[in-house]
């Protein structure tokens, strides 16, 4: 299931093969080294960084190193069996480390709803010449990478390895994943490549040397980078960047600032200290629990409290009991910087959001019932207190629906939208279409983590109606008046003929006409092709363009990723306000 955003020209011909092709998405190349991928446990962090780019409408080539220590371990294993340096068989074994990490990062991307694939060294097809362990790229076999990018939002590839003209595997030297990333960026015609490291840029000396304050370069010339880069950036990668005109950005995970290596240098200066941000979580259910698990394992954040109805309830997240409270006043006394709201009830969630903004906190919410009550009022309240509110996770789960509507509105007037908005209902409709009984379909949705114990908001269309109201605010600048007409999903519902629950709104003569209906006559393979918890959206521009996106609309990890992406945007904005980016 893809989490994608695209724009196409509207066509009167319903045949999808006759529609004009989607506008080419921007492609970025990101490299993640073993200092980031210390073990498979860090694969979700890489997937999260990739998700932010996909949500913004980009395609990603993610170049990965082997997990921390894996290369040395594999070299030792091979040498224990008698293989020495410059043996033609050695690179083929060692390159498996990068292929393993590429496969696991692709799996982590799939878990959160990204449409990802992993290529092997041979499938990627970088051709290299030279010594088996110190080769240099000299070409890229055609089609494989570009075909993968045509079919997927994310292509995860192994660094370090290449193919010699005789068909054997070669290695690109220590730090060779840097060289892989720079070479692929050059071959794709890009002007920049981003190397994600465990440090936030290039310094005038080792930051661990406390004899003098370390100064970070905002921009560093090729020569400065060769002189000071040391083990941070492979020298062969620097040489290739210079010869192919590809600037190299060196930055830490989820940091906008860092060092750009290119033609010119700027004097180094002190790097700002970034203490962990204090974060509070409201709710510890499917989404809140997923968010909490991510935060507790991330040193960039300090979880100061978790607001729940019953602090003594046993939960599936390993969290200190002292963090749980049922009293909002206890939470505000901790003075959090950011509140992530994922309560299951609208009125309580709305009250928490308002109190958080009034307390000077930034807010990200996954609670569509809460934010759809008065989105304009919440934005005004945030502005009045100099804070921000984000709610992308409240619509579409991992599908970037809010971003798609905003992109369409930025391009011109929006006159309507249609969408499958409820992953639980779509999952159940598919099961009903397969012949399952209603009770069985509902039980399966609960077991999959999509349906709540009380599924009435989903089954009665209230969930989809709240999302329609919020999308109307984004599309038209205001919510519809009155109730949103809606169909109910019940034991009498027939799912024959590809029935889908379609939430829609159209603007006609200045009046918004919203609806939530069950229908098999939606007329678009975008909706009929959805499986399981899939969600999808079409936005109609007044100029005839149609904007589309799709992705996983329910489940812990896809929705967690959306709220974590909102958190990352808040963090970047806070740092920009403080002059730290």
Attribute tags:
581 residues; alpha/beta; 8-stranded mixed beta sheet; 6-stranded antiparallel beta sheet
Largest sheet properties: 8 strands, mixed
The portion of residues assigned to helices is 25-40%
- What percentage of amino acids are in beta strands? 15-25%
State the oligomer.
Answer: single chain
- Widest sheet: strand ordering: 4-7-3-2-10-13-14-12
The radius of gyration is 25 Å
Number of helices: 21
**SS content category:** alpha/beta
Model description:
About 3% of the residues have low confidence. Helix content is 36%, strand content 23%. The protein is α/β, with parallel strands linked by helices and 581 residues long. It is globular and about 70 Å long. The strands form six sheets. Strands 4-7-3-2-10-13-14-12 form an eight-stranded mixed β-sheet, sandwiched between helices. Strands 1-26-25-22-23-24 form a six-stranded antiparallel β-sheet. Strands 18-17-16-19-20-21 form a six-stranded parallel β-sheet, sandwiched between helices.
Topology readout:
Elements: E1 4-9, E2 27-32, H1 43-55, E3 59-64, H2 70-80, H3 90-94, H4 96-111, E4 116-118, H5 121-124, E5 126-131, E6 134-140, H6 144-151, E7 154-158, E8 161-163, E9 169-171, H7 176-187, E10 192-197, E11 215-216, E12 219-221, H8 222-228, H9 235-244, E13 247-252, E14 259-262, E15 269-270, E16 277-282, H10 286-296, E17 301-307, E18 324-325, H11 328-333, E19 338-341, H12 346-358, E20 362-365, H13 368-371, H14 375-384, E21 389-390, H15 401-411, E22 414-420, H16 423-433, H17 438-447, H18 456-459, H19 462-476, E23 500-508, E24 511-519, H20 525-528, E25 534-541, E26 545-552, H21 556-577
Parallel strand pairs: 2-3, 2-10, 3-7, 4-7, 10-13, 12-14, 16-17, 16-19, 17-18, 19-20, 20-21
Antiparallel strand pairs: 1-26, 5-6, 8-9, 11-15, 13-14, 22-23, 22-25, 23-24, 25-26
């Amino acid at each position: 299931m893809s989490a994608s955003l695209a724009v196409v020209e509207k066509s009167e011909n319903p045949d999808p093969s006759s529609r004009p092709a989607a506008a080419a998405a921007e492609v970025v190349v990101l490299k993640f080294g073993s200092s980031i991928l210390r073990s498979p446990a860090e694969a979700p962090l890489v997937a999260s960084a990739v998700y932010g780019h996909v949500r913004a409408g980009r395609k990603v080539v993610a170049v990965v190193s082997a997990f921390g220590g894996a290369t040395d371990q594999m070299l030792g294993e091979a040498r224990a069996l008698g293989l020495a340096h410059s043996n033609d068989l050695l690179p083929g074994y060692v390159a498996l480390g990068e292929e393993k990490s590429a496969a696991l990062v692709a799996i982590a991307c799939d878990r959160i709803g990204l449409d990802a694939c992993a290529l092997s060294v041979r499938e990627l097809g970088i051709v290299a010449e030279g010594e088996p362990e110190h080769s240099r790229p000299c070409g890229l076999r055609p089609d494989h990478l570009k075909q993968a990018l045509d079919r997927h939002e994310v292509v995860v590839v192994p660094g370090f390895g290449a193919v010699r003209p005789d068909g054997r595997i070669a290695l690109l030297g220590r730090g060779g994943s840097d060289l892989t990333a720079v070479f692929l960026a050059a071959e794709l015609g890009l002007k920049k490549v981003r190397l994600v490291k465990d440090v936030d840029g290039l310094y005038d000396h080792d930051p661990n040397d406390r004899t003098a304050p370390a100064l970070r370069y905002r921009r560093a010339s090729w020569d400065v980078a060769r002189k000071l880069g040391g083990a941070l950036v492979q020298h062969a990668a620097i040489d290739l960047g210079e010869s192919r005109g590809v600037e190299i950005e060196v930055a830490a995970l989820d940091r906008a600032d860092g060092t750009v290596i290119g033609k010119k240098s700027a004097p180094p200066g002190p790097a700002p200290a970034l203490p962990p941000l204090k974060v509070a979580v409201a709710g510890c259910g499917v989404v809140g629990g997923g968010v909490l698990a991510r935060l507790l394992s991330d040193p960039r954040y300090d979880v100061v409290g978790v607001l729940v109805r019953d602090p003594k309830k046993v939960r599936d997240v390993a969290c200190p009991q002292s963090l749980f409270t049922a009293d909002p006043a206890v939470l505000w006394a901790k003075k959090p910087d950011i509140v992530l709201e994922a309560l299951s009830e609208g009125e309580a969630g709305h009250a928490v959001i308002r109190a958080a903004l009034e307390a000077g906190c930034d807010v990200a919410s996954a609670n569509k019932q809460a934010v759809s009550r008065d989105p304009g009022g919440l934005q005004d309240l945030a502005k009045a207190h100099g804070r921000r509110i984000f709610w992308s996770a409240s619509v579409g789960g991992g599908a970037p629906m809010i971003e798609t509507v905003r992109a369409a509105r930025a391009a011109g007037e929006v006159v309507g939208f249609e969408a499958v908005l409820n992953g639980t209902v779509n999952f159940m409709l598919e099961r009903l279409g397969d012949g399952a009984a209603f009770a069985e379909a509902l039980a399966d949705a609960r077991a999959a983590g999509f349906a709540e114990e009380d599924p009435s908001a989903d089954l009665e269309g209230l969930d989809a109606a709240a999302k329609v109201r919020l999308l109307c605010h984004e599309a038209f600048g205001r919510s519809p008046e009155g109730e949103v007409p809606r169909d109910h999903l019940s034991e009498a519902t027939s799912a024959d003929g590809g029935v889908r629950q379609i939430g829609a709104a159209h603007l006609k003569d200045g009046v918004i006409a919203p609806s939530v209906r069950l229908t098999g006559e939606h007329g678009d393979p975008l909706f009929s092709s959805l499986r399981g918890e899939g969600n999808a959206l079409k936005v109609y521009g007044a100029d005839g363009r149609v904007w589309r996106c799709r992705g996983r609309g329910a489940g812990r990890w896809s929705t967690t990723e959306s709220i974590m992406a909102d958190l990352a945007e808040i963090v970047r904005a806070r740092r920009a306000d403080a002059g730290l980016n």
